[in-house]
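Retro notes, structure queue

What went well: the backlog is down to a handful. What didn't: a couple of records were mislabeled last round, so from now on we paste the full input next to the output in the thread. Example, using Exodeoxyribonuclease 7 large subunit from Halarcobacter ebronensis:
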Amino acid sequence: MNSPISVSTLNTQIKSLLETTFINVYVEGEISNLTYHNSGHIYFSIKDENSTISCVMFKGNTKYLKFQLEVGLKVVITGTITVYTPRGSYQLLCNKIEPSGQGALALAYEQLKAKLHAKGYFNPEIKKTLPKYPKKIALVTSPTGAAIEDMKKVASHRWPLIELVLIPTLVQGDEAKFDIVSSIKFAQTLDVDLIVVGRGGGSVEDLWSFNEEIVATAIYECQKPIISAVGHEIDFLISDFVADIRAATPSNAMEIALPDINEHRIYIDTLSNDFQNRLKNQLLQKQTQLENITKLFEQNSLKSKFNYIQEEISLLKKNFQIYIKNVLQMKQNSLNVLQETYKSNHPDKKNLEGYAQVTMDNKITKLEELKIDDIITLQSSKTLVSCRVTNIKKQ
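Corresponding output:
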């Protein structure tokens, strides 16, 4: 009969058997019982419809984990089976964890985006307004990349008055996120009007530093306006959502940040022409007003009034002379008539032989007015004869 072995010996044998047999496990399951320990280790289980297995990822491997583990998340784990001898329990020691059906970076991106959105990092109401005419811009980027040259070129053509301050920064690699945060904080202490954070294009991994939470927080907490200019137009990074303005490319950042000097030259020319036209119109209008006022003044001046009065006096004098002349002429005419009448009634004329004056009732009467039986008087200068009309013969 064989001698019995101890529990420890059995667990040790099981440990040896399992760890040498299952040295490279590739398993898929749903996360449950998740715990992030203060030590930095992560404890959880994965399960399917029928079974569950305990899992652990030690701190040394968690730094490579790009996304946040969540209960209910389906993952694919690469690791080994290990046995904890004192308890006789076995677990899956995780070396690598990937989300099932999608990339780890894509999941990490969506998780962080949702988290920061909930914290208000993307709130449009807190976005700072860019200065219209910046004098100095801090560029947080690599000193050797194409991005800095593109930004300098666009800036020199668009607004030569701008002063660019380069803050050399790592924009790729594991340490880049810390350097970006440090550069943003340093740029905030400078006398600049705004900050441009960015780099040229690259793969998702190359651009990942701008998807890190500490970079997003540094942008969110910065007191100066920030433009995020990372990658190409199709690239959308977490920094783009947090920054005050997102630029499609580093060159586009300069186009957004700086006014176009050519447009301003045209605008100044337009203003100048408009000013000249307005000035010309104003001068013409004032000239016309001055001429009208001068004419009005001349019309109401003492000289004009004296001239007017003199003309009135001359007209009155002329009219008076005409009136007097007419009156005199009328009187002369009347006098002539009287004179003729007098001459016609002069006594000398009455003594003409064969002529007598006919009167009736002491009034001179025409023969044509006499009637039968009228008593008339024929009078000359020396004789009065009373007569009765007995016969009237019309010729």
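Agreed that this is the format going forward. Reviewer comment attached to the example: Residues 7-101 form a domain with the OB fold (Dihydrolipoamide Acetyltransferase, E2P) fold (CATH 2.40.50.140).
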